[in-house]
Amino acid sequence: MASLQDDHDAVVERFQPTSGRATGWMAVVLATLVVVAGVVYVDDGFPLWVTALGLLIGILAWATMIRPALWATHEHLVMRNLAETVHIRLAAVEEMAVRQVLAVRAADRRFVSTVVGRTWRKALTSRHRPGGLADDAALAPTEGMHYADFVENRLYELVDKARSRAGLRAGSREQLALPDAVRREPAWLPIGLLAGAALFLVVSLLL
C-alpha cells in the first residue's frame, strides 16, 4: 500500500517558471543589502523602519516570485502558491488554459498558478482548447515550441490519461462527483514570515 502511494505521489513532470524569477532574485538581493546595512549601521542612526521594510519586501518577493512552483504526479496537479499548496486530481480537471497565468477549473472552483504564463500579446492569439488532445496530433509538443504551449499540451495529455484510467468523460456527473478532487494545504512558513515582518515594520514605525 505504501509503495502504491509513493508511485502516485512521484513527480512525473516539473514545470519551469516562464517569468518572474530574475526579478524576484534581484528584489531579494536588494532587500538583503538593505537589511544588512540596517544591522551594521544600527548604531549610526540607520532608520529601523527601513530595515523592517527591506525585510518585508524581501520576504514578499521570495514568496510571490521565487517560491511558487508547479508539478504533476501520476494523480495530481500540484500548485505551490504564496499562501497554500493545492493538489488537484488530474481526472477532476474540468477546464484548463494557459493565458497570462495558468487557470484550472476543478470541483466547480477556479485555481490559478503564476508559474507558467504567456505574454499579453501571446495570450490573445493562443487558442483555448476545452477538450483533450487525443485526436489532435498537430498540437503535440515539438522542438522549438513555445514553452507555455508545451506546458498546456503536456497538462492536457496528463489529464486525458488520468480520465481514461478512471473511465471518466469530461464534464460528466461522475467526474464532478469525484471524491477528494482538491486538497489545499496552508503554507505556514511564508504566512508566518510575512506576518512577522509586517509586525516588525509596524513596531518600528511606532518607536
From TrEMBL:
Species, as recorded: Nocardioides glacieisoli
Top-level taxon in the UniProt lineage: Bacteria
Taxonomic placement: Bacteria, Bacillati, Actinomycetota, Actinomycetes, Propionibacteriales
Keywords: Membrane, Transmembrane, Transmembrane helix
Protein name as catalogued: PH domain-containing protein
Spans through the membrane: 24-42, 48-70, 187-206
